[in-house]
Amino acid sequence: MNQQEFEHKKQAAWTDFELQIRELEEGRNTPSDLKNIPSRFRQICGDLALAESRMYNLRMLDYLNQLVIRGLNVMQSGASKGLGGISHFLLVKFPIALRREWKLFWLCSAFFFIPFFLMMFAANSSQPWIESILGSSGMQQMDEMYGPGKSVEDLRNRFGSDFMMFAYYIMNNIGIDFRAFSGGILGGFGTLVILLFNGFYLGAAAGYVNMAGDPVVFWSFVSGHSSWELLGIVISGMSGMRLGLAIINPGSYRRPDALREAAKSSVSLILGAAAMTFVAALIEGFWSASPQPPILKYSVGIFFWIVVAFYLIFAGRKHEA
Amino acid sequence: MPAMEAIIGKLDTIRRIELPEGIDIRLRPAGPFRRAGAMALDFLILIGMAIVAGILAMMLGSVIGPEVAVGLYMIFLFLIMWFYFAWFEVKRGGTPGKRAVGLKVVQTNGNPITWRQGIVRSFLLWADFLPAFFILGLLFCSFTKAFQRLGDLAAGTVVVHSREYNSVFAPSNTFMPPPPLPLTVPLDREEQQALLAFLDRAPSWSPPRQEEMISHLTPLTGEGGSAGVRKALGMAAWLRHDPRQK
């Protein structure tokens, strides 16, 4: 059989299959369409094998090759699993993935909290450090927000501005999480910079307010969301470090393979970190600036630290192998 | 001929992937130039979306209050900044820019990508952008075999051409293959395939390029220049039409 005869004989089946595939690709199909897809697909595979062994021309081979790939993609697209449901991810998969990397947790906590406390406690004795880290505009901003006699509530007296701040925290803080993940692929360097910088900066800010502002205004504002937000940064740092370690120390794998494996587990970490930062944005937007007595805000802050600790340590235990 | 295979493996960017159905599919990874074009289109689309949403937010602001409108706008910016690529690549196989220039994203085994892979690619775009204008991405794209940027390497994905080469290989009106010329020497399968591929692709090359390529076949054709090309094409035409070959 020569190519023309072959093409003539099969053309109708190919065009039919192509139409069916296109409908599926564009999402307009009924379940009854699906029944004969696998058998038709195998038919096309057979045709491609024949065409190739008979060395028909490249145009036909390309056409059939593309048809097979599209068929394959259509049949596999249902198999592309999501994250297995948001609640299952947050309550089981993420805490398990986190505990599996507990060494990284302490490493990244160190990179973040050591500079943080260093700057905070050094504030009184080393003001030049604070000045160089915050800059004059940063100090001015801190004065406006947490200076003597100020209160955060004054800046936000309407629902609208609470919502705007909530949106801003999402864009800015979750954006930082994602960059900490992304920067990890440079051998962990980008992640390290982000962790250290945020540790130094937030520590300097806290130290500056302790020294020159009104500490009660500041600490009662940050206590509510502090647990979710700070651990969110640390965990996003873990996701980046996981990528970076695959580059620095791939072990017995080739680097690209080590990187691919690391990426699988670090996606769980970064998405979990983003979820925690999202919770922090909710609290920071709608609770932290509300006019409540400081003692209540401190209590809520401590309560959330305990909740977060229990969540990260115990959630999903019974699913753990 | 293992030596030959090694050479082809180095020259050819096509990835052959064996399916359980017992056949190979061929994926054609797309090079940095085509991908840069797609990226430029996507950036224009993103900027367009940001502008349109900004105007909408301003109009909406007078109804729901300016702060809420600005908040919604910031959330929208956050979403398109980090999830535009992942969303379209997982849902549609490619962003609008990629689809417009005939590209799509698949796993290295040819399957459609998962959410995890889409997210890894999408977030690592930021690292690929460093230090400016995708220099890092461009470097990795240029020096890896399947043109993979960092995000592709980490996700295990590859950007491939989604359209067949029909237009390139369609016989042009001016191209008439010479009359069949019986082969005097038996050729093995691989050699026959090479000769037939030359016949199929000849119309897309200029005559001097055809002569240059076929000059390697002078032991077979016995002639150089355009006469050699004619003879080689004749032999290929004979191979394709000889009933004994089928």
Outline the fold blueprint:
The complex is a heterodimer of chains A (321) and B (246).
Chain A lengths: L2 H23 L11 H17 L4 H19 L9 H15 L1 H21 L4 H20 L5 H4 L3 H25 L5 H24 L2 H34 L6 H32 L7 H21 L7
Chain B lengths: L1 H10 L3 E4 L5 E4 L4 H33 L1 H27 L3 H5 L2 E5 L7 H15 L5 H9 L6 H6 L1 E5 L4 H4 L19 H13 L5 H8 L3 H4 L3 H17 L5
Antiparallel strand pairs in B: 1-2, 3-4
Helix pairs in contact in B: 2-3, 3-5, 5-6, 9-12, 10-12
Distance between the termini of chain A: 59 Å
- Biggest β-sheet of chain A: count, sense, barrel? none
Low-confidence stretches of chain A: none
Relative helix content of chain B: 55-70%
Largest contact between chains: A-B, 62 and 64 residues
The end-to-end span of chain B amounts to 24 Å
Name the assembly state.
heterodimer
Q: Would you list the SSEs of chain B in sequence order as H and E? A: HEEHHHEHHHEHHHHH
The general outline of chain B is elongated
Mean pLDDT of chain B: 86
Radius of gyration of chain A: 28 Å
Secondary-structure content class of chain A? mainly alpha
Strand order of the largest sheet of chain B: 1-2
Strand content of chain A is under 5%
Number of helices of chain B: 12
Question: What is the structure about, briefly put?
Answer:
Chain A has 321 residues and is mainly alpha-helical. Chain A has helices spanning 3-25, 37-53, 58-76, 86-100, 102-122, 127-146, 152-155, 159-183, 189-212, 215-248, 255-286, 294-314. By secondary structure, chain B is mainly α.
